User: Which sequence fits this backbone?
């Protein structure tokens, strides 16, 4: 009887962020679809009301169906039958419920049967589904591969494939190969054009493919014979109905066991080109990955929430030394920090989602008409911010998810180590979030250029200049001091003028920037709603000490030390 | 082949989550303290209708409810799940009805709908738990009934095959359309609300509800006839007024007792023969059994 939307008022809070008015107005093209589609909104209030009501449906399905199934899905897992994936019974039930509720293709345009929701409410749904079952959100969430088709495919391809996604067909993105993981330039899966059949044929092997047996797959393959780098790769759409791909193996994983991770064998599998040749990696995968990273950021927040709730409930219930353990400082401190990290990761997630919403919607509008000068600038600005924030939301969010999952078990003590409590599954599930779709280390690689270029600093100073209530000044002062400290640390590292030295400190610097931004976002949340006061206080104090530690390390390091860290 | 289905639904107080204010001092149900919900077994009934609609395109599902103005909420809930239209039967003249008067009013409304192949309703409502209205409607309409249904197995050549869940097992029976089916809580759960249908129908309303809406709202729904939920009063159906409401209800409440469950001493028994023998003896001695 739980509803994951109504029991988490933070979602409604973020849904009602002031920037949403602009996002919805763009997304709805000034509310011009209401005469064409009976489910299109009339105005902003009507749209927000629809988002809320639909999120209530998602919340209900999460609470009543997906979460209760999570344990059995983790236990049963998918099976390999005749070269194809058979989902765990609970997974089938989950998918059926979400399909019947019409929750596939949430962000796709109405002309394909989608709901035309902005990214923000879609990400909220992912946040809740992940809280209910971190592994299941992969299968459902891969619908955001459809965004890539929507951006780069032809109208005819969109009509064919996107309408199927909206009817409930699942997707996959086939990128990784045994020798091409973090380094996708090494992809070898071969695409050859068969003149006789008039189609592309794919041959080779893909590995670690989530939901690899989905109905529609985006496949990165080498279309240019003789090439060895990223410029020889193109993006293809493979339709399971055409056949030619078999699942050779389903990986036996530590966590997210309900999500089938497949090794795929392509044997003359027919496929169609998506977009232009040679742009597969350099353009389309980058877009695909940014969407996927936002999805993992949402998954991470869902895990943070699930872990925090499990720990809180147990700490209130468990009695030791004659009282509930939540009354002991060692426990309540842990819980308060879990909540602070949860709120921080979430506010970062939705800030990022809003940035993505504004620029992507403007980008789609630019295909319909020429943007005004102001709109072009707006798009550029928000795209930049989205690029800056996505690695922070994914990188820091997934680390928090792991920390919260670890602490949730710690609060449970010995019981948490047993299979009897959900925290054990959450702990295993959390582990992948900081690995796939780019490890935390790769998020740092994506983010460090915004440290050295000063983009984060500029954005931080913008947050600093925002109006806040006088009683919140204390926290701003702390954040300003942290920013000065960050600026000095960046200066020291950059001044040395040695790329390896920057890489050496990159994670420290990115985290410092990220924590300051999270602090400002929480401050702004508190400015809008006093319920965030406690979280802001706890997070800012924690972040201050974290940053001081990093600043201290940097201050006392020298480029000459690098050699000492190299292990033989 | 599309079917014409009428699903009977009732808005009931959620007696599954009873708090301390659930009853008033006089022993009647405090409806204000309990959230009003779609009677659970009526949702099971709706699901059976929706499955027939999935199977037979062109099927039309009408949801019919009797109750106060706010009972239109269950009609909207039905529209969000795939029902095609709703009828609210509401009038002061219907108030205070027992099962006899209720089934009479509903039967009169169904006669006005006229054209139907199937009437499906939940076995019973969680407020009264009588399980009488469905069967009485069938009697009044003079059509067959199949009660305790768990699943519609098939519909072919005007014959419906139904799996019934009975105390000692299951029974599969056939009946000729049109007929009434009452559905058990053990049947498939109703599907969730559908996002698009919810956005389409969330502004739907009855005449009484519209009386309290703004000009803007009225302008918005003006050209969308599907947002109009039918509302019928006693004047809209052909009936004998004497048989309606309080005057048509022979049921009189003689006495209501407030029972507070109290847990007394408990005993833990092993599954050994000795303990079971001892328990049997005790139960026979105090006449619990035997």
Assistant:
């Amino acid at each position: 009887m739980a509803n994951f939307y109504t029991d988490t008022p933070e979602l409604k809070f973020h849904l009602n962020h002031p920037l949403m008015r602009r996002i919805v107005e763009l997304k709805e093209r000034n509310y011009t679809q209401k005469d064409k589609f009976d489910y299109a909104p009339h105005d902003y209030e009507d749209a927000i009301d629809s988002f809320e009501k639909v999120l209530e449906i998602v919340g209900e399905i999460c609470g009543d169906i997906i979460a209760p199934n999570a344990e059995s899905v983790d236990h049963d897992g998918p099976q390999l039958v005749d070269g194809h994936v058979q989902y765990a019974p609970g997974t089938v039930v989950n998918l059926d419920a979400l399909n019947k509720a019409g929750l596939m293709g949430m962000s796709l345009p109405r002309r394909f049967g989608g709901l035309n929701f902005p990214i923000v409410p879609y990400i909220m749904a992912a946040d809740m589904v992940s809280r209910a079952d971190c592994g299941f959100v992969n299968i459902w969430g891969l619908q955001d591969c459809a965004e890539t088709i929507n951006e780069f495919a032809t109208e005819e391809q969109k009509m064919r494939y996107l309408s199927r996604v909206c009817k409930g067909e699942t997707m996959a993105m086939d990128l990784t190969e045994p020798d091409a993981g973090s380094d996708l330039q090494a992809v070898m899966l071969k695409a050859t054009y068969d003149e006789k059949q008039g189609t592309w044929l794919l041959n080779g092997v893909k590995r670690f493919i989530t939901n690899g047996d989905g109905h529609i797959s985006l496949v990165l393959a080498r279309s240019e014979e003789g090439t060895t780098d990223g410029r020889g790769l193109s993006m293809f759409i493979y339709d399971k109905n055409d056949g030619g791909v078999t699942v050779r193996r389903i990986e036996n994983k530590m966590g997210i066991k309900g999500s089938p991770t497949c090794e795929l064998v392509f044997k003359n599998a027919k496929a169609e080109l998506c977009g232009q040749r040679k742009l597969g990696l350099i353009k389309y995968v980058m877009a695909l990955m940014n969407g996927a990273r936002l999805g993992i950021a949402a998954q991470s927040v869902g895990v943070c929430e699930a872990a925090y709730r499990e720990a809180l409930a147990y700490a209130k219930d468990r009695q030791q030394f004659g009282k509930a353990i939540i009354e002991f400082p060692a426990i309540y401190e842990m819980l308060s920090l879990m909540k602070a990290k949860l709120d921080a990761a979430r506010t970062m997630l939705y800030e990022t989602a809003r940035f993505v919403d504004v620029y992507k919607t403007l980008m789609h509008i630019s295909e319909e008409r020429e943007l005004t000068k102001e709109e072009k600038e707006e798009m550029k600005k928000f795209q930049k911010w989205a690029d800056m924030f996505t690695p922070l939301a994914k990188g820091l969010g997934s680390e928090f998810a792991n920390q919260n999952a670890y602490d949730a078990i710690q609060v449970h003590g010995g019981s948490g180590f047993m299979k009897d409590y959900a925290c054990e599954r959450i702990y295993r599930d959390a582990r992948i979030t900081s690995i796939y779709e780019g490890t935390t280390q790769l998020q740092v690689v994506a983010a460090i250029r915004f440290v050295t270029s000063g983009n984060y600093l500029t954005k931080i100073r913008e947050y600093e200049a925002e109006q806040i209530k006088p009683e919140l000044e204390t926290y701003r002062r702390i954040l300003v001091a942290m920013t000065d400290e960050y600026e000095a640390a960046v200066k020291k590292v950059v001044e040395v003028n040695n790329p390896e030295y920057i890489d050496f400190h990159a994670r420290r610097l990115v985290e410092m920037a990220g924590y300051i931004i999270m602090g400002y976002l929480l401050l702004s949340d508190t400015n809008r709603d006093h319920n965030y006061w406690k979280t802001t206080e706890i997070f800012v104090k924690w972040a201050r000490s974290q940053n001081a530690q990093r600043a201290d390390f940097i201050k006392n390091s020298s480029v000459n030390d690098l050699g000492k860290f190299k292990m033989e | 082949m599309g079917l014409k289905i009428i699903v009977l639904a009732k808005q009931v107080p959620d007696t599954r989550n009873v708090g301390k204010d659930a009853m008033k001092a006089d022993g009647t149900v405090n409806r204000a303290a309990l959230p009003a919900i779609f009677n659970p077994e009526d949702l099971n009934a709706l699901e059976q209708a929706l499955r027939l609609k999935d199977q037979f395109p062109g099927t039309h599902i009408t949801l019919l409810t009797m109750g106060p103005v706010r009972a239109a909420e269950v009609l909207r809930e039905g529209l969000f799940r795939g029902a095609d239209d709703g009828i609210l039967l509401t009038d002061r003249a219907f108030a205070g009805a027992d099962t006899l008067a209720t089934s009479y009013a509903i039967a009169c409304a169904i006669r006005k709908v006229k054209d139907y192949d199937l009437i499906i309703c939940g076995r019973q409502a969680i407020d009264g738990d009588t399980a009488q209205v469905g069967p009485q409607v069938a009697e009044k309409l003079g059509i067959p009934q199949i009660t305790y249904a768990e699943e519609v197995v098939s519909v072919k050549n005007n014959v419906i095959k139904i799996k019934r869940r009975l105390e000692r097992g299951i029974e599969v029976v056939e009946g000729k359309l049109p007929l009434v089916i009452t559905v058990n809580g053990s049947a498939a759960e109703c599907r969730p609300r559908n996002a698009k249908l919810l956005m389409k129908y969330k502004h739907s309303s009855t005449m009484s509800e519209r009386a309290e809406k703004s000009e803007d709202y009225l302008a918005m729904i003006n050209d969308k006839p599907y947002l109009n939920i039918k509302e019928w009063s006693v004047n809209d159906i052909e009936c004998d007024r004497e048989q309606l409401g309080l005057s048509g209800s022979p049921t009189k409440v003689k006495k209501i007792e407030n029972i507070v469950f109290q847990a007394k001493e408990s005993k833990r028994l092993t599954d050994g023969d000795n303990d079971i023998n001892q328990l049997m003896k005790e139960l026979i001695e105090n006449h619990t059994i035997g």
Notes: The longest strand of chain B covers residues 145-156. Chain B has one domain: 4-248. The domain at 4-248 of chain B is CATH 3.40.50.620 (Rossmann fold).
